[in-house]
Each structure stands twice: as C-alpha cells, then as structure tokens.
Design a protein that fits this description.
Strand order of the largest sheet: 7-6-5-4-3-11-10-9-8
Order of helices and strands: EEEEHHEHEHEEHEHEHEEEHEEEEEEEE
Mean pLDDT: 86
Number of helices: 8
Helix content: 10-25%
Number of strands: 21
Low-confidence stretches: 1-40
Strand content: 15-25%
Length: 423
C-alpha cells in the first residue's frame, strides 16, 4: 500500500465521477443514531487490548476499549465463591482514565464452581459456556463489579457471542433472564450505565437473531450489539449484513436503538512468522491476509459501518496473536495495518458518511455538505482510472502520502485503496 509517486501517470481511459454522477450512486441511508457528537469524535473507533501491561499503547487516537480477553472475566476474578480479585481490572480502569478512554465491560464466563454444567467443554475451560447454576451468584457478581466501578465503567455488555456453542450452551430464554437480572442490578447501582445486548456474531448470528429477540430481551438493553465478522470475505458484505440486522430489529420494535459493532476483525499475517487461524477459533484453512490487504479491509469496514449508522466499532484486537496490529509473538508492529487506524482517525469521526457503489468502485462522501472530502476504493484488484470534478485537487493514501492530481486520479498503479479525495 506504500506508494511510489514517481510511478504515477495519467490515463486516457476515464470513468466520470463528477457531481453529475452522485445521484446515480446507491447511497446507504444512515440511521438516526449514526451522528457522532464533536466531543466524542474518537468513540466511534474502539479496540480490544489483551495485555495493556505488556503491549505498547497504540500510537493513534481511539476512544473506546472493550474488555474481552483481557483477563477480567468472571472466571478470572472470582475463582472461589465469595472472593473477588479486582487487581487486574483496577489496573485497566486506572489506565483507561489516564488515557481518556471509555470502557465496556463484558459480563460472562462463569467459574467452574458457579457453572450449571461444570464439566462441559467451553472456550475458556470446563463449564465456561454454561449459564450460572444459581441466579444469586450471577447477581452478586454483577453487583460487585458495578458497585466498585460506578461512574467509571460506562457500558456493560451481557455475555459474548452466545450463538456459538463454545461460548454459550444455554437457551435463549435463559440468556434473556440473565440480561434482565443484570440490567436490574446495574440500573439500581449505577443508573447512568448502559446495558448492551449480547453480541451475536457473523452470518450465523443473523440467522438466529429473530429467535433471540422474540424473548423480549431488547426491552432490557440500551444498545444493540453485533459482531460484524464477515466470514473472511471482503468488507463490502457489511452492507447486506447490516440490512439483515436492521430487518430483525424492526420486526422486534427495536429499530430506534443505537447499534454498536462490539467485535470484528481479520487474520493478519505475522511479522516474519506464520499465523495459525485455529489459535483464535477459526478453521485451520481460513485465509490469512497480508498487512496491506488487512489495512484496506479495516478502513473500508469502518467507513461502511459509519455510513450505515453504526455508532462505534471495536477492532479485535490490538495485540492478538493472529489478528493483531501489534504482533505479540515478535514484538513488532504491522506497519500498514497500524497506518490504517491513523487514516481512520484522520478521515472519519465527523458527520455520518454517505457510502454507496458506482461502476466498479465504492465512494463515501464525507462532510455535512458532501464536499469536505470523499473516500474511494474498489473491491477488485485495482481501481480503474477515474476523472473527478475539477475542485477535487488532492488524493491521500492510507500512509498519509498526498498527491496534487489536478482533477484526474492516476490510479492505475494505486491498488484497491481506499484513498481520500480532498480540496
């Protein structure tokens, strides 16, 4: 994705992308909840960080941190009934406050002693995917966390990816009861805190979302969560995935609640080492993307989701061994993927983009009037050459390189993008 500007040349084969074309682009209409206020412009960009005490802190701005796989689950903090260990969570909360980062805590992963099926296999050990055996244990766990961090942790998501059996083996009504009981405790102890729907994941989650919502669980949550994993496909499938989710929300009368993408990402090649997809629960034959391709996917996904009115997205994960931007195995940064997050901070976070598809390319108009800038990219091997209306003067790539192109984009050597067009 790093560009050699001396290689650019102008082409005579042009696709008109001018003000006259804009009406022809199928623009996705953002939901009312899609606007991000100026004082929260970094909240749309969220991360997971597993080892904040060992991994370097990201050098780009982000506003939200979801505490999953960060060593602070129920199983991590209450190994024995009646005894809580908050040392690690205390550390993360203090760090987030120092950095000005908003936290989301995820309730779940019962310890063996609290599990209704303590010998059953689960992603985090025996009994970890089962619902609690005793509702009072669940209530006491929720109360202990919220009481300790009242006003400091603002968001609470109930359970993680319950559509996958390695994370949850109970029924939908049982999960809805867990959400309801947790919500009662949270709102009693910290009325300003927000309750987040358990984040179902991938295409499979969309196929069972209606069944889950029929329990009435949506009444107890302030925010709809989804994990927009694309099934190793290019991010443009997100247009259809978000549409399916909104259809389910309309059927359940929840269409006016904000939507957060609380987890998603792709497998990214390591720095000089092979990546094992099965290390994070994927099929061993799942594709592992180059640093350059992953960077393109990440920016495209954030742009599409922002344009579709998804208020925030949390990338999984900054320091994950298979999907990370920082390679925890080698201690090296994946430079182009890291540059992608810098680009997201520069390009997005203002008024809701308007995104849609043209002839062989995608375009997101940025700014309230559609003239502040535009992102353009292709889901093919490379963009076709593009001519733009004359007031577009500059093109910027993910790495921040800028070219004055005088109204014509010499894109035959640019690859897939995205690229920012601006004055």
């Amino acid at each position: 994705m790093s560009l050699s500007w001396s290689r650019f040349f102008f082409s005579v084969v042009l696709i008109a992308v001018s003000s006259s074309l804009y009406p022809l682009i199928c623009v996705a209409q953002p939901a009312p909840s899609g606007q991000v206020s100026s004082d929260q412009k970094n909240l749309f960009l969220g991360l997971h960080i597993h080892r904040a005490d060992k991994s370097p802190w990201p050098d780009f701005k982000f506003g939200a941190w979801r505490l999953w796989d960060a060593g602070v689950s129920w199983r991590n903090m209450q190994r024995q009934k009646g005894e809580f260990d908050f040392v690690r969570l205390d550390s993360w909360v203090r760090l987030a406050e120092k950095k000005g980062i908003e936290l989301t805590y995820v309730f779940g992963v019962p310890p063996i002693w609290a599990s209704s099926r303590p010998s059953e296999a689960g992603a985090y050990g025996p009994g970890s995917a089962a619902e609690p055996a005793n509702m009072d244990d669940w209530r006491q766990y929720v109360r202990a966390v919220v009481s300790r961090y009242r006003g400091r942790i603002k968001n609470y998501e109930i359970w993680n990816e319950p559509n996958w059996k390695n994370f949850y083996t109970g029924s939908w009504p049982q999960l809805a009861t867990l959400v309801h009981e947790a919500a009662l405790v949270v709102k009693e102890v910290d009325p300003a805190a927000r309750i987040i729907l358990p984040g179902l994941a991938s295409e499979h989650g969309l196929s069972v979302m209606d069944d889950f919502l029929r329990t009435g669980v949506g009444r107890d949550v302030d925010i709809i969560s989804y994990h927009f994993y694309t099934g190793h496909r290019a991010p443009e499938v997100l247009f259809g995935m978000v549409d399916k989710l909104r259809s389910s929300l309309r059927a359940a009368g929840l269409e006016n609640k904000p939507i957060w993408n609380t987890e998603f990402g792709w497998l990214v090649e390591g720095r000089g080492r092979a990546i094992n997809p099965s290390a994070v629960g994927f099929d061993s034959k799942a594709p592992v993307y180059s640093d350059e391709t992953a960077a393109s996917y990440i920016v495209r996904a954030f742009a599409i989701l922002a344009g579709l009115g998804i208020e925030r997205s949390y990338y999984y994960a900054w320091d994950n061994e298979s999907m990370g931007i920082f390679d925890a195995k080698t201690g090296q940064l994946k430079p182009v993927s890291n540059a992608a997050f810098h680009a997201i901070g520069r390009w997005l976070g203002g008024p809701t983009p308007q995104c849609g598809k043209g002839d062989g390319f995608y375009l997101c108009r940025l700014g309230s009037s559609g003239t502040a800038g535009a992102l353009v990219w292709s889901d093919r091997a490379a963009l076709s050459p593009i001519a733009l209306k004359k007031d577009w003067r500059l093109i910027e790539d993910i790495n921040g390189h800028v070219l004055d192109f005088n109204g014509t984009v010499p894109v035959s050597t640019l690859g897939v993008g995205p690229y920012l067009l601006r004055k």
